[in-house]
Amino acid sequence: MKRSSLVLALTALLASTSVGAAEIYNSSGNKLDLNGRINAGRVLSNDDSNNVDASYARLGFKGETVLGESFTGYGQWQYQFQLNKSEGSDAVSGDKTRLGFAGLKYGKWGSIDYGRNYGLVYDVLAWTDMLPKFGGDSGNTDVFLSGRATGVATWRNNNFFGLVKGLNIALQYEGKNDRTGDVAVRRSNGDGYATSVSWTGDSGFGVSGTYANLGRTETQNRASYGKGERAEHWATAVKYDADQIYLAAMYGNTHNATPISGGFANKAVNFEAVAQYQFLNGLRPSLAYVSSRGKDIENKGEADIFKYISAGTYYYFNKNFMVYAEYKFNLLKKTNPLGLSSDDVTGLGVNYQF
């Protein structure tokens, strides 16, 4: 049956978890959009380390300027403010720059930019990082291009030079970040690269793949876990996103690149799957399974790094305001070799975004 234009409009409005930014300037080939979010949330668990206020605010902008025919300059910046701290505690606030990069785009040849941006491994991991509160565990910030990363040069080309609709490719290089202090092991990296490719058809079906290979620092190789001159990460994913249905699954392997307490797993096998349905009244229930199995861990052998089932939902009042709830059924054993928490966790929140 052919749906009415009203139903189609509601589907388009509610089926996306993102919203358009607020345009604050657009004149003479120059454009500036402002975007932001306030998330008032709480995480609840019998484990005190997971029983916290998770509130934050984000503010950012996207800008572009026309430099010539089919030639554009652009930039983006985003900052996060933690809302779970007392006044006067800025020295240990946890506030952070999430994104900050600038670049050039030229017609069918694509774009190239440099700065703090998402690593290309996350191009694939993002397909299953769709849960109301949790999820995305296979990607990590400042860890071998599997999340947001510093000092990355990224080239992207959509629709393969205008020849194949839906076929997108990308290449990325990251320079060495040899950090010190408490984050020297967890957030350092040597020089390296990543690549990603994806194809999404008009039917909503898509496939994607990524590979990253980066050097490791001397400090990382002196850590308790994880040995090797290079860190590798490959992953592939499939999705279906149409008719108010969202289904996605991701499978990948890492070598010396999945963090554990005291270093990195020599090898890890990651799997994530998510299913969601967008009701036209704004309700979007979600069900997911997320796991990572570490192998060849010194003196530990094999061990689950994370493993859980997620059940939750969003409720969109409109494109700018929604509430969410999610329950994480933790499948880790109480006597797991890595000493990780085995308690279930609940996430609740209210979100306003523009």
UniProtKB/TrEMBL annotation:
Membrane disposition: Multi-pass membrane protein
**From which domain of life does this come?**
Bacteria
Which segment of the chain is annotated as a signal peptide? 1-21
Its keywords, alphabetically, are: Membrane, Signal
Q: Does the keyword Oxidoreductase apply?
A: no
Q: Per the annotation, which location comes first and is thus the protein's main one?
A: membrane
List, in alphabetical order, the GO biological process terms annotated in this UniProt record: monoatomic ion transmembrane transport
**Entry keyword Membrane:** yes
| MF terms in GO | porin activity
Q: Where in the cell is it found?
A: Cell outer membrane
Give a Gene Ontology cellular component term annotated to this protein: cell outer membrane
Which family, according to the similarity comment? Belongs to the Gram-negative porin family.
Q: What is this protein called?
A: Outer membrane pore protein E
Q: Which organism is it from?
A: Erwinia tasmaniensis (strain DSM 17950 / CFBP 7177 / CIP 109463 / NCPPB 4357 / Et1/99)
Its lineage reads: Bacteria, Pseudomonadati, Pseudomonadota, Gammaproteobacteria, Enterobacterales
Q: Which gene encodes it?
A: phoE
